[in-house]
Design brief:
single chain, 11 strands, mainly beta, 7-stranded mixed β-sheet
Length: 127
């Protein structure tokens, strides 16, 4: 059983930056592809970014491409999401997720492909 705990959310002005972290425990972190999703009030959970077990392959939603960067540190069992040039429409609860397997190519982008989820961290971008 893998436990995921997100941190780093908060309130930021439009154009600002935040760095989210997701700490994993209870499993072999390098056995999992990792992803970030978000859910705004009244909307479905949507894919943001994903990274392969090695970190060599990344994938982004079009809405965040060029602004967000996903990375991981397997020695620290942590995945990160650097968010720059934030917009009010980025406001949501951000969730970290883990998908078992080293063969994902590209990394998974749908909620059903992920095995474990964190509880989320709120990101609010004011205009």
């Amino acid at each position: 059983q893998v436990q995921l705990v997100e941190s780093g959310g908060g309130l930021v002005q439009a154009g600002g930056s935040l760095r989210l972290s997701c700490a994993a425990s209870g499993g072999t972190f390098s056995s999992y592809a990792m992803g970030w999703f978000r859910q705004a009030p009244g909307k479905e959970r949507e894919f943001v970014a994903a990274i392969s077990w090695s970190g060599e392959s990344t994938y982004y939603a079009d809405s965040v491409k060029g602004r967000f960067t996903i990375s991981r540190d397997n020695a620290k069992n942590t995945v990160y999401l650097q968010m720059n040039s934030l917009k009010p429409e980025d406001t949501a609860v951000y969730y970290c997720a883990a998908a078992y397997g080293s063969s994902w190519q590209p990394p998974p982008t749908t909620t059903g492909e992920y095995d474990y989820w964190g509880r989320g961290t709120q990101v609010t971008v004011s205009s």
